[in-house]
Amino acid sequence: MGFTKVTSKVVLAEVRPGAEVLARRGAMLATTGRVAFSPVAGGPGGGAYGGGIASALARGMQGEAVPLMVAEGTGTVHYGFRGHHVTVIDLDGSAPLSVEADRLLAHDASMSSSVVFLGQQGGLRGAVRGAVTGQGLFTTQLSGRGSVAVLSHGGTFALRVDGSRQVVVDPQAYVAHVGNLRLDVATALSWRDAVGRGSGEGVQLKVSGEGTVYVQASEEKL
């Protein structure tokens, strides 16, 4: 199952038995056919789609719990949320997607999800990165084959990362990444910053490894 972009802010999903869709509650805009919606506890991967009550409580404590609903039956569903732009990311099963739970609009219900401590992605540097980007100390990882619809301000662009070049991202513009990437917070503060005459880009996110990082066209958080 994949999502079809209808506009830059709306995607269309086909729903059928064996191809259910998980989406954040309140994201359904229109539907055709015979499609039913049921709440799923515990955020990404919760309830009958992995996790259960204990996982739901843990996700809530970690700030990665976004109320979800599952679409079941046969038909189509249009999804969008608060006029935010939507980016569709297709995963081939070879690498997970790391993204904040509140940026998730919808994804294939067959995909597995987990909450990851950012300290596992670079130790203390990972935790510092979470604080700088506003992610907190945890992030959500989606794994498997399928499509994920991600929210952003102004849309996103993808940057391929490999060992041949350095990629630097504004921490506030970072949205998500796929692959084995290392994200380190770096500072480039000077005396000009101290006197208020700096460029305003003193804190940066240096991305290295193999994968793709998605960057939004704005420094505004959702």
TrEMBL record:
SUPFAM superfamilies: TRAP-like (SSF51219). Gene3D superfamilies: Mitochondrial biogenesis AIM24 (3.60.160.10). Pfam families: AIM24. This is Uncharacterized protein (AIM24 family). It comes from Kineococcus aurantiacus. The lineage of its organism: Bacteria, Bacillati, Actinomycetota, Actinomycetes, Kineosporiales.
